[in-house]
Specification:
2 domains, Arc Repressor Mutant, subunit A, five-stranded mixed sheet, 9 helices, Rossmann fold, alpha/beta, three-stranded antiparallel sheet
Length: 268
Amino acid sequence: MMQTMLHVIFTPSGAGSLNQALRNAGRDDRVISFFDDLSFGPINPADSSLRAKWVENELGWTEWDDVTAQSERFWRDALSSDYRKVVWLSRRSAMEYAGFLEWLWRLGGAPCEVVDLSEVRISIRPPQPPVLAVSVAALSPDQIRGNNLWDLAEPLQMRARDRYLDLWRQLRSENAPLRVIDGEKLLSAPITFFDSFLLSYAKPNWQKVAMVVGQTLASQVDESVFQTGDIFLAPRINALVESGRLEIKGKSALEMRFSEVRLPRARD
């Protein structure tokens, strides 16, 4: 009996795009998404309840229980032996890379196929030249279907599996607050890693927090990597305010569209 194909994705928006592309192509494959982001927070163990406490204490987000519940459902389905598993990732996305490594760690020796978009170039708007896919989260359903990206699935070879597991073993032992992309590597980093980037876009005059965060995120795209998201950067602005490196007008940087920040003004 042929197994149903299960596509494992580590970004919810990417899962939505892939699911729509498959339906448009007349395929009934199943798609599931991981909602947590293992590029930040504790990963040894990657226990959902422990991570929820860390997110609340370190980042100030208090509704991570929803992510916890979704994570439990994801792991149940993503590790089931009932499916032929195809995992999608990009080593240019810290969220996807970290999620993939934890999934592979839990999978054990079970077989799987991989669609690795790290160096894949796709056609966007002909006659413009192809561009790096970077992440399934950055692609539309038409781009996924038009480039037949599911045809890139290849069985994960033992040598590659061992290399990935060695990397995750090291990152787990370090259990740092952050994991970031450095070339083709995923490295541990301190929680302050992005602070200098945020400060570089702050100005002496007031700006919306969303503007500072958005410019920081845009700078990642210029480097063809996805390092982190606003869910991590906005809390770091609160930390910079607490340390006196920024001033805030508004209740919290977590309310990005309703709060403003600026560099401290020199006092006479």
